[in-house]
Each structure stands twice: as C-alpha cells, then as structure tokens.
C-alpha cells in the first residue's frame, strides 16, 4: 500500500503527459424506429486506471507526429476508421482528470459516412454506442462527448457539416433525417426542402433511389467546395453558452 501511494505521489510530481482522445460520430438506424441516430465507437480499457471501463479511442502523442496525425493514427489502430473529417475540439487538462500523473488530453472529433462506419472494426473491446445513452465513461470522457455534441449541433445551424454524415448521393429526406438526428427535433418536411434547394449547395444527379414501395425519390449530391476541404480547425476558444468552457 505504501509503495503504491509513493508511486502515485512520484507520478504526480512528473511533468504533465500529453494524450489524444477522439469522438467519432456516425449515423446508424435505431433498433426501435429504424430512423438514424448518432452513434460513436468506444474502447474498453484493459489496464488501470479505469480498467474495464469504456473510453474514447486515443493514446499518447509520439515525438515525431503532429496532433492531427496522432489522432488519425490512434483511430486507425483502435477502430480501423480513417475519417475524412477530423477537427480539433478542445484541450482537457483538469488537475484530477487522471489518477497518478497529470494528463492533458487534446480532444478531436470526427464525422464518418455510413460506408466508412460500416468498415469500422468491432470486437469485445471495441463497440459502438448511442451517443445519447452513454454509461459513465473513463476519465472525463462523458464531458468530452457532450462538448463534441454541442459543437456538432452548433455547426449544423450555420454550415454544411451535415453532408459529412451522408454518402456521396442522397435524398432530401435523408438530409432532413441527419438534421433531425443531430438536433434531436422534428423538422417540417416542406419548409426544410424549400430551404435546402434554395441555397444552391446541392444538385440533382438525374438518378433515383430504388427499392422502395412508392415513387422513387430523386438523388442529389453536394456541390459546395467545402466538402473535401475541411481540415484541422483549432477553435480552442469556443465555449458552451451558459455552461462555460470544459475544465482545464
């Protein structure tokens, strides 16, 4: 007991370690309604601290890689996901967020299309969970997920980020379902269609979605240049209105 306590004290006296954690959002159908809802993959910790608890994919930063490269590498190693959209979220550095040595975690968040999410590795220690029904995670990872959700919902109201959760071709109803899933509210189909087609960010492909019982809906694609140009946005100064920034 004494040696363990002494070891913790010794680690506390060391310089803070730097780690990477990443929230990955994807849409998957609800088991009850079949409508898309937000899911994210978690990794079961196999060692202390928090052994056996679920946590965000992540790991240490090596000497020879950038923060974004480290986030991408950790995702590929743990989940086999290679997201096209990867953005820096925030630096989480609470004094007591990790037992033992202090750890500052640079959090990222990623969005993946359905085809990308389908390729994600799953095992006894890597599973997908509904973002709105998470248990208590390791460290402060619930706080990180909540902040990533706020950031996603905020960007949905003024940007074109929703298209990163869709495939290359989609129906207008599928776009609306993305907004409804993320914002967690029902949108008027007619008003949504009118606003969506008025902003000239999408165009009809000339194709139709096949396989339904009714008249097949028209397929569209996103035409904005932003789709393939999203990169590393370091919005470190952002805060959640009414709640203040995450602990640091």
UniProtKB/TrEMBL annotation:
Keywords: Hydrolase. GO terms for molecular function: hydrolase activity. The keyword Glycoprotein does not apply. The keyword Transit peptide does not apply. Residues 15-153 form the Nudix hydrolase domain. CDD domains: NUDIX_NadM_like (cd18873). Pfam families: NUDIX, WHD_NrtR. PANTHER family: ADP-RIBOSE PYROPHOSPHATASE (PTHR43736), SLR1690 PROTEIN (PTHR43736:SF4). This is NUDIX hydrolase. It comes from Arthrobacter terrae.
